[in-house]
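We emphasize that the prediction below concerns an isolated chain of 171 residues; any contacts that depend on oligomerization or on bound cofactors are therefore not represented. The input was used exactly as deposited, without trimming of termini.
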Amino acid sequence: MNRFLYLLLSLSAISFADQPPDWSEFSVQSENKQWSAIVHPKGNAQERREDEWVLKIYKGFYLSPPAPNVQPAWTTEYKPSGYSGGYLSNDGSTFSYVDFWYYPDSPVLRMYRTECNIQINGASFNVGSDLQQTVSHQLWLKGAGSVEYIRSEGKLYLQIETVNGLRKVEM
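Result of the prediction step, given as a C-alpha cell string:
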C-alpha cells in the first residue's frame, strides 16, 4: 500500500512538473491566513511572459486583488517562472517561490522581501547528481516538495525538503 501511494505521489509530481507554464496571475495566503500575496502582470506587453510582473503583500485574507482603496503593506517587482504558487511567511515579511525543476546554475529559490530580493541557484543546496528525471527536467524536491517557514532562536528560515534531506535558508 505504501509503495502504491509513493508511486502515485511521485507520478503526480512528475506530471505537474512537466506541464507548460500558464502565466496566470495568482494569490497565496500565509499559513495563519493573516496575510495575502497577489502576483499579476502590469499589463504593458501583449504576451504575459514578456510583461513586467508585480508582487503585492496585503494584511488580510484575499483570494483576488482587493478594492483599489486597500493599500498593500509592501510591493516589489516579481520574476515569474510562468507557474503559480509560492510561500508567504506568517508575518507577511517574506514571499518565496521554489522551483520544482533543478538548475545547478540558475535560481531554484527566489525570496522577496521589502528590503531586497534574493535568488539562490540549485548548486547552493548540495543535493547531488542522483536526481529524479522527468521527460524534460530533473526534480530536486522530495515527493510533493514540503516547504515551510520555521522560526528558530528568533530567526525566520525557509525549510525545504529535498531528495537529499532538509535544507534551511535563513531569511
